[in-house]
Amino acid sequence: MKKIISLLLVLCLSFGLAVTANADQGEKVIVAIGADPQNIGPFQGMSLGRIGVLYTTYEMLCVTVGGEIQPVLMKDYEQVDELTYNVNLYDYIYDQAGNHLTAEDVKWCYDTAKEMGNLPKLTAIESVEVTGDYSLQFKFTTLAIGDLGALWMECPIVTRAAYEASPDGMAIDPVSTTAYKLTEYVSGSKFVYEYTGNYWQTDERLVNPYGKHNVNTIEFDVIADSTQLANALKTRAIDVTVQLTDTDVEDFVGQDGFTVSSVPDNLIMFLSFNCDETQGMFYNNPDARKAIAYAIDANMIAQGAYNGNAKVLTAWGHDKYSDYVADWANNEYYSYDLAKAQELAKSSGLEGKTVRLLVVNLEQQTRVATIIQAFLSQIGVTCTIEQYDSQLFGTYKYETDKYDIVLDTLGSTAYLVNVWATAFDEANYTHGGTFNFVHDDQLQALLDEATATDGHTAEQMDAFNAYMAEQLYSYALVEPMVNIAHTDTIKTLLTDCRIQINAGGSEY
User: Fold this and answer.
1) Which residue segment(s) compose the domain that 456 sits in?
2) Per-residue CA distances from 218 to 53, 179, 182, 465 (Å)
3) Of 41, 50, 203, 407, which has the fewest Cβ atoms less than 10 A away?
4) 0.85 exceeded by the pTM?
5) Alpha carbons 442 and 96: distance in angstroms, whole number
């Protein structure tokens, strides 16, 4: 049976933070982000800096909130069969250069993004075909629970004319359909966006909260250092941040003129082992992987790196996701055991080896990596910390010769099983293995069962999680908390599905 979902229906669904259409127009807001995305072209891979500016820079076919689809550029969609959907666009969408956006542009965006290969989720799309000036048909190779909305919000949409007019693939001069145009970019320092006054969606009833434009100027300041970030907020050089450390946030609690909250992150911080057979150290050697896990006291990471403001995990996931199995909270899951770690390090041949720990050069990750380094020294393993900026880190973690262990984070806008699929579904990677080069048919079969739209039961989730714990290709550490603080310039703050600031949708 065909299923039609209209925009008028989905607009009835609630967002995490309410925004009114009659909010007073703010003049300027300054948002601190932790990293420079360096290249904000539409088809680049995700990074810390990129997620901070993403919804100000680009629009997608939809956004998802709590797993529910909220149309943006699409007007509605229709299910044809299990793997086929029709999409209808609004016929009056224009970008900031005045180019009329049509179905041909949307197809070109998806085809280009797939070809560039920076958005691995898009491999689940078999084809995008134009069926009319403002209609398309999407065919998927597979479609797990939560995938539909995730795939329609994975690819930023621009007009082909605007992209081809850009000399650098919109790396620093994006032209999109949002209400905000980038007017100033200082590498490593700031991005300034101005309200165009000419947003294509003139019917306020149809503007999704992420697409609102309640402030005239949005400035994103890149501040990676935690001390500088705290000082910038104290002096009101910035108005809002979601990146205060767990120590610095205490300076703003109860202070006049500041609002502070701490919410669970959707991210999972984890270690993954390079299991490529050419590397040798962790390939086909589960005892070596378990030696690392038993050697690390995750409670010390929560205390030492997060000042206690993080939750130690007992499964590969956490309970912010609705498909998390409650019984996992009682798992032992490699509790710190130095004697067992030393025994396994010796029997597996890991003792006396040097391992390269790949991390992104952010302050929080560096603190975690330093703690891990100290723990591994207790089992006779030398750990060298290899730090790179977010762009290089995002490249090197997919190269077999760049690391032995990687410290990484992942999250989803829908379900825990979607986080698993991002990391461990072999279909997402050209080498045919998981993101850390595991080739395991049983792991893939269990993931396929857990992601099936006609299944996705607690039993299937438990089976995958148990097998992952047994093989330990990847070891989940902690769920961080996100510290959000803003000045009284902002009356009501809107955050997006990744707990990033949506400045245009906030109230002033």
Assistant:
1) 268-481
2) 10, 11, 9, 42
3) 203
4) no
5) 49
